[in-house]
Each structure stands twice: as C-alpha cells, then as structure tokens.
Amino acid sequence: MKNLGKLALNIMTVGAILLVLLWTLYPLMWIFLSSLKPAGAQFQDPPVWFNFEPTLDNYREFFGNSEFISAILNSLLITIVSVLFSLILGTPTAYSLARFKYRHDDKMLIFVLLSRMTPPIVLVMPLFLLARALGIIDTYLVLIIMGGLLSVPFVIWMMRGFFADLPIELEEAAMIDGCDRKNVLVRVLLPLVAPGLAATAVLCSLLVWNQFLFVLVLGGSSTRTLPVLVKMFVTEQSVNWGVMSAAGIITVLPLIIFGLLAQKYLVKGLTMGGVKE
Asked: In degrees rounded to 5, what are phi and psi of residue 63?
C-alpha cells in the first residue's frame, strides 16, 4: 500500500513536470515551426504543426538583412561589457552588505530590491532626458551604462547571499597572514563564490540581451540590437511572421548555447548554501 502511494506520487510529480515543460516549451516550438513554414502555411486554419514542406527562406531573408551582422555584434558588445560593469560595481557592494553592519542595512536591501522591481517604463523617460542632455543618445556608452545599472541590483541581491554563506573565519585567517581587505576579497573569497558569480553573470546576460524598450528609446540605427532588429519586420501594412519567427530563434540561440556551456556553474551557483554542514 505504501509502495502504491509512493508510485502514485511519483507519477503525479512526473506529470506535473511534463505539464510545466509543455507550457514552457510550447511557444518556442511554435516559433521554431513557424520559422520553417512557407508563407502559405502561416495562417492555415486549423493550424498546421508538421504537415507542411519546411523551407529555410525565412532564415535566408533574415540573414540577408544588411543590419544583421551589426545587430548581433552590438548585442554581444553591450551584453558583455554591461555584465562586467554590473559585476564590478555590484560584487564589492554585496560583500560590504554581507560583512559589515550599517544603520538601516535592512532598508538598504529593500531599496535595492525595489529598484529592480521598478517597471522599466517608469525609468525610460528620465534616462532619455538625461542622455539627451549629456549628448550620448545612440551611443554604446548609454546602452552599456543602462544595462549595467539595471543589472546591479540583481548582482547585489544574488552575491550578498553567496558571501553571507562563507564563514568569516576564512577572512580572519587571511588577514592574520597579512592580507588586506581588498586581497581577501579578490584572492580568497571570489574564487570560492565563482560558481555564484557565474550564475549571476548568466542571469544578468539574460536581462541585458533581451532588453528592448531601453535600446529602442536610447539607441538608434548604429546601436540597434537583435531584439530591436526583429521589430523591423512589423510594418503598418503587414507582419512578416515567418521572418520574425526566424529572427526570434536566432535571437535566443546564443543565450541557449551560453546557458548550456555554463550549466554546471549555473546549477552549482544557484544551489550554493542550500545545504548547511
């Protein structure tokens, strides 16, 4: 009887996981299939799943766009530099909040969380006016600063937990051996929280790479990224769903590859501190 109950629980668990996977992967699967459909199969009723002749014309049209190469290079540049910028700013701040006691430090953390939860539409106009006053509209500088500052609260919140899980005795031993506070952070603590740092970098990359609103408002033709390039296939007369689907697949593909390559560090980082000795 006990074994039957355990079997039923396992079946329900697997069923729930499959439902979640179906709910999560269904849109991506539909976009992928739409990217392979010819124009005539895009709007068939009932929708066609597999009974169509696949074509790569949508991908050829997207890759044939003269702005594709510049858009993907812009996305890579802005994402990499923004994530590095946010890690350089956020990691020491997270360490400070984890190790030192400040007056109202709990309110500081709430403020950090609220700044991350603020709707982007609220921030875009002040940032646009500030960037216009400084004369940096449609430059890499404003987009890198934007991506970095949007990611810093996330870095602080994530990395503070990783630093708090490390025993303070490690720092005390290093300082007895002659290390100052900076060397303790760089040489002792950062190698220990490297998986957490990698997980934070992956998640920050998702935030910056997929950013659309700020790049659309603060950027321009010379700094257009892949998510903004997709918008070019929406016109007042029509929407090129096939090419848009191909563009969507190409846009998410680098993140999927990056996530797979960093999967070991991502899982390890997200589970750091989950089990106490």
From this structure: -65, -25
Between the two ends of the chain, the Cα-to-Cα distance in Å is 35
Give pTM, 2 decimals: 0.80
User: Is the Cα torsion angle 252, 253, 254, 257 positive or negative in sign?
Assistant: positive
- Tell which wins on pLDDT, 207 or 239: 207
pLDDT value, residue 141: 92
In the block, residue with structure tokens 């890759």: 63
Q: What is each CA distance from 157 to 115, 160, 237, 253, in whole angstroms?
A: 11, 6, 45, 28
What is the rounded distance in angstroms from the CA atom of residue 243 to the CA atom of residue 60? Answer: 9
Q: In degrees rounded to 5, what are phi and psi of residue 37? A: -85, 140
Please tell me the distance from the alpha carbon of residue 81 to that of residue 133, in angstroms, as a whole number: 23
How far apart, in whole angstroms, are the C-alpha atoms of residue 148 and residue 156? 12
DSSP conformational letter for 139: S
Question: Could you tell me how many helices (H) and strands (E) the chain has, helices first?
Answer: 14, 0
* Nearest Cα residue to 131 out of 120, 119, 145, 117: 145
Position 80 scores a pLDDT of 92
Written as six digits, the tokens of 177 are 């051996």
Structure confidence by residue, pLDDT tens digits, 48-100: 777 778 888 888 888 887 788 888 899 999 999 999 999 999 999 888 888 88
Distance CA 132, CA 126 (A): 10
Q: According to DSSP H, which parts of 193-240 are helical?
A: 194-209, 213-218, 226-230
| Tens-digit pLDDT profile for residues 173-218 | 888 877 788 888 888 888 888 888 888 888 888 889 988 888 988 8
